[in-house]
Amino acid sequence: MSHFAQIDENNKVINVVVCDDSMPNEGLDFLVENLGGKWVKTSYNHNIRGRYAGIGMVYDEELDVFISENEVI
Questions:
Q1: pTM above the 0.85 mark?
Q2: CA quadruple 65, 34, 28, 18: dihedral positive or negative?
Q3: Is the dihedral of CA 38, 44, 50, 56 positive or negative?
Q4: Phi first, then psi: what are they for 21, rounded to 5°?
Q5: Which residue range forms the structural domain that includes residue 44?
């Protein structure tokens, strides 16, 4: 399984979904084509981007991590 976070124009996480990773591009193409928006891969096991994304968190593009809203500087 692959996990993706949808982020809004302010990089705030507004949705988190699980995809079948046997799909092309681990399901990212399906999400973009069918739901639109910007999606960033996240890891349930915290293997990438610091931690698993949750709704309300913010994706810091510069650091390439998801951070809690109260951690935003």
A1: yes
A2: positive
A3: positive
A4: -75, 0
A5: 2-71
